[in-house]
Amino acid sequence: MLAIERREYILNRLRKEGRVQVRELSQELGVSHMTIHRDLDYLVSVDDRVKKVFGGAILDRPYQPEPGKCAMCGKPVPSRTGVSLQTASGQRLEACCPHCALLLVESRGDVVSGMATDYILERVVNLKSAVFLLESDVVVCCTPSVLCFEDEDHARRFQQGFGGQIADLEEAKKQVVFHMTLS
Ligand SMILES: [Zn+2]
Ligand SMILES: [Zn+2]
Questions:
Q1: From the CA of 4, how far away is ligand 1's center (Å)?
Q2: What is the DSSP letter of 76?
Q3: CA of 56 to the centre of ligand 1 (A)
């Protein structure tokens, strides 16, 4: 495959999915990570909507808020796990679950606040003070599963039954991005 074909392919994926991963592309196209990085650098230089992020790139298209759809993956937003994010410019973004919310926060860099739903109490909890349970056996939406709790004691008791790893916002963000880069 020629470089130009590869770049076209990557751009199409970006248009369709909004983001691409270096690891994934390198496997699909059978070329090295270096080659993909060079392709992404090229795309960034010719199209200012393409932005490199950790482990890949995103297409920063003018966001058309689709009510009830996740701004990261496009899935419908369930009330039980939905997260509402606010950007610096006052835009409101919805995510289907804390997993997508964390990826949005990390990839956009302009999210100033977020409200998640406590998985047990089903009431609003601030993302910044929430306790996250990663990779428990309860997969309600995206994988790796991320659940939000207001109360650390609740999270710990839930963990006793369903496993997983407890984290604060910073740690949870790191873990999710790390997983997405490896998968
Ligand atoms: Zn999503
Ligand atoms: Zn989700």
A1: 31
A2: B
A3: 18
Whether the full predicted model's pTM is greater than 0.70, yes or no, is no
Return the CATH architecture of domain 3-59: Orthogonal Bundle (1.10)
Architecture of domain 83-182: 2-Layer Sandwich (3.30)
Which listed ligand is nearest to 98 at the C-alpha? 2
Interval between CA 1 and ligand 1 midpoint (Å): 32
List the pLDDT tens digit at each of the 183 positions of the chain.
899 999 999 999 998 888 999 999 999 999 999 999 999 999 999 887 899 999 999 987 655 667 889 998 889 999 889 999 999 888 899 999 999 999 999 888 899 999 999 999 999 999 999 999 999 999 989 988 999 999 999 999 999 999 999 999 999 999 998 887 665
- Residue spans in the chain of domains classed CATH 3.30.450.410: 83-182
The phi and psi torsions of 119 (rounded to 5 degrees) equal -70, -30
Neighbours of ion ligand 2 (CB under 5 A): 96-97, 100, 141-142
Q: Are strands 146-149 and 131-134 parallel, antiparallel or unpaired?
A: antiparallel
**β-bridge partners, 19:** 58
